[in-house]
Write a structure and sequence with these properties.
The protein is of the alpha+beta class and about 100 residues long. Helices cover about 25% and strands about 35% of the residues. It is built from two helices and five strands, in the order βαββββα. The chain has a five-stranded antiparallel sheet with strand order 1-5-4-3-2. A hairpin with a 4-residue loop joins strand 2 and strand 3. The two termini are about 25 Å apart.
Length: about 100
């Protein structure tokens, strides 16, 4: 699953906001029962390990010049939640960067 969030910030500011608000990302998963770990792989890639609904999901956030791209690897068994998670990512991602 891939969700791109447009922004007009410089990359350093996006990095700073993501780092300072990374705990809010757990709220992107409907139901609020997610646990998330994050770490940086370079200046522009935040890696995520999300544990929710008995599953472990890998994800990443790529900071680009005019957008921030959230990608989460959903297993086929959870494909039915993609629209819900995608919608939350878009909604909350915009708030995260504001």
């Amino acid at each position: 699953m891939r969700v791109a969030i447009p922004h007009s910030l410089d990359r350093a500011e996006v990095h700073r906001r993501l780092e300072s608000r990374k705990d809010d990302i757990a709220g992107f998963v409907p139901g609020g029962l997610a646990d998330i770990e994050t770490y940086w792989q370079g200046e522009d890639t935040m890696m995520m390990v999300i544990r929710a609904m008995g599953q472990q999901l890998d994800g990443r956030v790529e900071i680009e010049d005019s957008q921030c791209v959230f990608e989460i690897d959903l297993p086929p068994a959870l494909s039915f939640v993609e629209p819900m998670i995608g919608g939350k990512l878009e909604e909350k991602g915009r708030k995260l960067l504001s």
